[in-house]
Prior knowledge:
This protein is of the alpha/beta class. The chain contains seven helices and six strands, in the order H-E-H-H-E-H-H-E-H-H-E-E-E.
Amino acid sequence: MAxxxxxxxxxxxxxxxxxxxxxxxxxxxxxxxSPGGATRHPRTFFDANILLYCEDSAHxxxxxxxxxxxxxxxxxxxxxxxxxxxxxxxxxxxxKLGMDAVLARRKVEIYTHFHVVEPSAGDIxxxxxxxxxxxxxxxxxxxxxxxxxxxxxxxxxxxxxHGQVIDGVRIVNPFR
Length: 176
């Protein structure tokens, strides 16, 4: 469970704690891997907004929950992100949260310890089809398609309807 933060905690101090926790989790993962890397837990796809809350001290309850989720899925090796998510994270962390680009790069590096989906041209076309069929924004459709393609049963996001199941992927707003 994540250490509770106080109003005196700075974003930099919290980010440093996340770095330390992530390094600890990575070491534990290496020492406790099962043969063949098999996992018993379902894969979970993270939208960029969930990762951004790890840094957002303006929303302390969401920040704590986001860190708990990231650490849990790093430990279990069940977290999934896409190149799109990593790009959105970097842009929004530096522009909206004012994070230093070097620190934001370091955070992206930590998130690459999740499984990373790299969309192909066919995936782009499938996301366009999903956009046309379901009337989602193209970017949300690409997130959904990436989650499905990578075998995720859950998509953590604030951007879509909580509880909805689309092509076998359940949308979960972890802050509800």
